[in-house]
């Protein structure tokens, strides 16, 4: 009897140990399976979010460069600067200077819809002109230390405006004064509002990191509001690295908010996106719920089945039965994860033939399991030579390393190209030989397309789709480098439309925008495929000509441009005629870098405009003046002034 009780006790203990072993094994397998999926999903979500925020930061940098470009254009007006030099030298009174400068700066307000106010200050901070909506300007001591154009957001009455401060220099390097320009911030509001695409409670901010001032969209989404940074993000501010993009998780004792950041404006500011932690990572948690839920449901059933199976044969086969039940539970768990995950999973042989795929693979690619079983990847996805070489390099790397992660381009069942964020891991047997490859990937095609669209918008003019100022400067710099290496010439043509302001005032801004698009179309049809035409802003365009045999060929192109643009434009039945003044700077004779070529072409354009318009002029690098060029359409233009209509 005691032996029987002992046997029964042993059986109960063995049964309990078997059940507990199954439960513990299932939990461990669930954790081992869930942790990599969670890590991959979280890192992918954060990576794609940072890519989007960096693209927004690039768009914001482009906006700042456009505003600062307008400021440099205003300060570089030659005749106005000469009058300021005369005032500094005591040859002109401040009243005369104000009388001459005010109407021209007022005219400059029309060059950009975002420009709402201009202040021109003298060398000692004295106010010369105050046009439009203006706010407070920096102290005189701050202006004296200003070496280049600077921009920042400032508070004006009940709203926020963008203030750009640009020093005015004489040709000998003397400080003549300062221009302070004020811009509307509607574009910044729309950029910050994009944060709500992450989740409804997300907010975007622009942080002046040194001044610790935070600018964000107000509650009704119509404007900006400024507040102290430490009153809003006090816990996270000290943990932000301003030198690069990143993500800051909330502290355990703080509010559950996750913070993404990327530097903008040359490192002077940070673009911040603040989101509710649980709302942002909800997709990652949701992806784990299905496999974990299946595990939790299966564990009690597996434990009960194990107990029933072990009772008849516990004395003889307890160890074998326990091992079999544990293995069965692990297989069920692995199968549930394989079938239920939202990421595509593909298992291939060592020679890359497909052995098995999950339902997510069919949903993403369109191929059913029967269509792909046993087929090689290269045959299935119709990889071209370059992609096949990439796959071969990946295979060579997997021979040395355990896994590979990156982007691969496939074609789905409809023949459409898709970009996958993929992880490839190899499985080895007991002899360390490769038995299988496991491929896990997500379709990120839409994310890549959105990224390309944002990058295109950051480098092209929104009205004409021509390269913008930043893109033109980069392309001219590359062209100059090629010309230096090949010992060839290139030319920069600076175009300013004449009488455009009259058309804009008479027919309205909508017709003016349409006229600018028509001008861009004529220029693109006139020029060669290798020539570059872009829009600097307002009614100013720039043409880059490479591979010129001689400088005179630039003049021939300028003459054709004048001939084409002086032909009447048909705008909804309204015949509109304009003119164009062109300045030419040739590399290397008239400028040795991108900035010099653009500035010299701009100066030559002013001389062409002053000479009667509808003509072109070369910049003369010897005398600092411009050389004469041929003119077209001179009749009826001789009475026009040099600065009118710019």
Quick structural gist:
Residues 627-646 are annotated as: Disordered. The protein is built from 18 helices and 24 strands.
Furnish the topology, listing elements before pairings.
Layout: H1 2-75, H2 78-88, H3 94-108, E1 115-121, E2 127-132, H4 140-144, E3 150-156, E4 159-169, E5 175-183, H5 186-193, E6 203-208, E7 213-217, E8 224-228, H6 234-237, E9 246-248, E10 257-264, E11 269-276, H7 277-280, H8 282-340, E12 344-348, E13 354-357, H9 359-365, H10 369-372, H11 377-381, H12 385-400, E14 403-411, E15 417-428, E16 434-443, H13 445-459, H14 469-486, E17 489-498, H15 500-507, H16 509-526, E18 532-537, E19 540-548, H17 552-565, E20 569-571, E21 574-576, E22 579-587, H18 594-610, E23 615-619, E24 626-631
Parallel strand pairs: 22-23
Antiparallel strand pairs: 1-2, 1-5, 3-4, 4-5, 6-7, 6-11, 7-8, 9-10, 10-11, 12-13, 12-16, 14-15, 15-16, 17-19, 17-22, 18-19, 20-21, 23-24
Describe the global form: elongated
* Cα-atom radius of gyration: 34 Å
The major sheet is characterized as: 6 strands, antiparallel
Number of DSSP-assigned strands: 24
Q: Assign the CATH architecture of the largest domain.
A: 2-Layer Sandwich
Average of per-residue pLDDT values: 78
Task: Please tally the helical runs, counting DSSP H or I stretches of 4 or more residues.
Answer: 18
Q: Return the CATH topology of the largest domain.
A: Beta-Lactamase
Describe the structure.
The chain is 47% helix and 26% strand. It has 646 residues and is of the alpha+beta class. The chain has 3 domains: 221 residues, Beta-Lactamase; 110 residues, 2-Layer Sandwich (Beta-Lactamase), CATH 3.30.450.20; 160 residues, Alpha-Beta Plaits (2-Layer Sandwich). Strands 8-7-6-11-10-9 form a 6-stranded antiparallel β-sheet. It has a 6-stranded mixed β-sheet with strand order 18-19-17-22-23-24, sandwiched between helices. Strand 14 and strand 15 form a beta hairpin. Helix 16 packs across helix 17. The C terminus is likely disordered. InterPro entries: DGC-Regulatory_Protein, GGDEF_dom, Nucleotide_cyclase, PAS, PAS-assoc_C, PAS-like_dom_sf, Rev_trsase/Diguanyl_cyclase. It holds the Pfam family PAS_9. One of its GO terms (molecular function) is catalytic activity.
């Amino acid at each position: 009897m005691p032996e029987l009780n002992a046997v029964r006790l042993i059986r109960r203990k063995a049964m309990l140990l078997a059940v507990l072993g199954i439960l513990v094994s299932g939990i461990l397998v669930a954790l081992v399976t869930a942790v990599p999926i969670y890590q991959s999903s979280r890192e992918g979500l954060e990576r794609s979010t940072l890519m989007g925020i960096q693209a927004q930061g690039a768009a914001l940098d482009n906006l700042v460069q456009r505003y600062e470009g307008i400021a440099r254009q205003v300060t570089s007006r030659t005749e106005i600067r000469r009058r300021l030099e005369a005032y500094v030298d005591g040859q002109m009174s401040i009243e005369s200077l104000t009388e001459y400068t005010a109407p021209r700066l007022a005219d400059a307000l029309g060059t950009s819809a975002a420009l709402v106010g201009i202040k021109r200050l003298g060398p000692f901070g004295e106010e010369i002109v105050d046009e439009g909506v203006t706010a407070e300007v920096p102290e005189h001591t701050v202006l004296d230390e200003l070496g280049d154009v600077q921009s920042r957001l400032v508070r004006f009455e009940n709203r926020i405006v963008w203030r750009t401060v640009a020093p005015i220099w004489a040709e000998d390097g003397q400080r003549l004064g300062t221009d302070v320009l004020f811009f509307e911030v509607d574009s910044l509001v729309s950029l910050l509002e994009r944060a709500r695409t992450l989740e409804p409670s997300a907010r975007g901010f622009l942080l002046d990191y040194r001044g610790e001032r935070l600018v964000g969209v107000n509650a009704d989404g119509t404007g900006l509001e400024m507040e102290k940074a430490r009153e809003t993000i006090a816990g996270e501010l000290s943990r932000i690295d301003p030198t690069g993009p990143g993500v800051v998780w909330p502290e355990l004792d703080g509010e559950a908010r996750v913070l993404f950041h990327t530097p903008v404006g040359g490192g002077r500011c940070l673009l911040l996106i603040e989101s509710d932690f649980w709302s942002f990572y909800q997709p990652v948690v949701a992806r784990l719920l299905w496999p974990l839920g299946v595990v939790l449901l299966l564990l009690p059933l597996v434990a009960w089945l194990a107990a029933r199976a072990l009772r008849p044969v516990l004395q003889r086969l307890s160890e074998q039965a326990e091992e079999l039940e544990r293995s069965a539970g692990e297989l069920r768990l692995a199968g549930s994860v394989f079938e239920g995950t939202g990421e595509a999973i593909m298992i291939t042989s060592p020679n890359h033939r497909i052995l098995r795929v999950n339902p997510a693979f069919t949903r993403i690619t369109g191929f059913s399991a029967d269509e792909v079983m046993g087929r090689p990847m290269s045959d299935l996805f119709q990889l071209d030579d370059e992609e096949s070489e990439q796959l071969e390099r990946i295979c060579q790397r997997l021979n040395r390393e355990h896994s590979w992660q990156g982007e691969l381009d496939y074609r789905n069942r409809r023949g459409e190209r898709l970009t996958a964020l993929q992880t490839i891991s190899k499985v080895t047997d007991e002899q360390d030989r490769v038995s299988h490859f496991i491929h896990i990937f997500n379709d990120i095609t839409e994310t890549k397309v959105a990224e390309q669209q944002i990058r295109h918008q950051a480098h092209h003019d929104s009205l004409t789709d021509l390269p913008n100022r930043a893109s033109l400067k980069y392309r001219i710099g590359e062209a100059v480098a090629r010309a230096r290496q090949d010992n060839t010439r290139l030319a920069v043509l600076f175009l300013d439309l004449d009488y455009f302001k009259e058309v804009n005032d008479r027919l309205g801004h909508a017709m003016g925008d349409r006229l600018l698009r028509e001008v861009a179309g004529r220029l693109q049809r006139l020029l060669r495929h290798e020539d570059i035409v872009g829009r600097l802003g307002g009614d100013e365009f720039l043409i880059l000509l490479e591979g010129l045999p001689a400088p005179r060929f630039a003049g021939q192109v300028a003459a054709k441009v004048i001939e084409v643009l002086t032909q009447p434009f048909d705008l909804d039945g309204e015949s509109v005629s304009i003119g164009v003044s062109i300045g030419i700077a040739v590399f290397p004779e008239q400028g040795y870098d991108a900035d010099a070529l653009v500035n010299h072409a701009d100066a030559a354009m002013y001389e062409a405009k002053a000479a009667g318009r509808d003509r072109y002029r070369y910049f003369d690098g010897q005398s600092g003046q411009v050389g004469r060029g041929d003119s077209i359409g001179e009749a009826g233009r001789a009475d026009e002034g040099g600065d009118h209509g710019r």
